[in-house]
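seq as requested:
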Amino acid sequence: MSDNGFFDRFGGKYVAEVLRRPLDELEVAFKKAMADPVFLDEFRTIQRDYIGRETPLYFAPTATRILGGAKIYIKLEGLANTGAHKINNAIGQCLLAKYMGKKRIIAETGAGQHGLATAAACAKLGLDCTVYMGEVDVRRQQPNVASMEMYGAKVHAVTSGSRTLKDAVNEAMRDWAANPDTTHYVLGSALGPAPFPDIVREFQSVIGREVEAQCAERGIKPTALIACCGGGSNSIGFFAPFIDKKEPRLIAVEAGGIGPGVGENASRMTGNASREGIMQGYKSRFLLDEDGQALPTRSISAGLDYCGIGPQLAALGMSGRVEFTSALDSEALDALKFFARNEGILFAMESSHAGAEAIKLAPKLSKDDVIIVNMSGRGDKDVFITSPVFRRKEWLEFLHAEIDRLESDKDVHE
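struct tokens:
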């Protein structure tokens, strides 16, 4: 847990007075819920029967053989309901909001998986749902937008700023500030003002606790855990039970984008434009210019292009407990294809960054070593991103055919 909202010098609650009361109220309610047998029993039942926990820990024999060196295991969070780890936190916060008497939920989303998970959780629990999503992300994540709307959520395309996740967070915070009595903001990553980093880590730590138990059951001693890292919800949840131990190595993989230049990546810990700063209610490391303004980011994965990182991960990176690296867009695409072709597992573009690091690391280790990769989500959602890369001609033909079909249907209905 944080020390009064801080992890070393990172974290805090840097918000306008109007948000202090709902944040304090949330912190009290969260601590009460974590000690409430009724809440915990309902939550665990939902985890089992609705999310589908526990998720498998899969040994990847072909990848292990091809790469040589360490054995590779994959934590299949993509098999959770809604296709990613995001449901762990979304259902926890929505249930908490219901216990608090809130009837309306708002959320921000980048890749769309958090928005999708929140929309699904609200549909299950009977809560009104509004999702803020950058206009750029709306365009490249249409399958998730369609699914959110199918669950009954209202999706607002944010047209300000860079029109990505940072701007979606800003809009969600404004909404919450205007409607604190009826509304709960389900923040999707382990960042933002306290107590959100503690809440999200706690709800996502089920990933790491399952891995720990699954390893003990099979007699596996992992050498390294690898997770992609944007804001950090899947990585901090994956790492949580191991943070205070000396082993295994904890490796977080940021978005290397197309290169090291400003605006070419989203590397907050390894990039050359990273600075400490305060933004969106918390202190951490961000990609900032000399005036403290957020710099543009770039990543093929919509879920990794946020300009900041969760405060606990920032502290763990500075202390050396978590090792930070990055993967280029091209390396993530290669990893996506590698695991799809050799293991029949379709990684999300975000998770493919972790897969890319496993491909680099495994041959450097011995056959007695074990790498566990957190496949935080499935790649189904990325069809609009990957199809133009892997099958551009066929994708263009499909889109043109769909336009012609829709135009024909329009003429018929008119």
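The chain has a mean pLDDT of 94.
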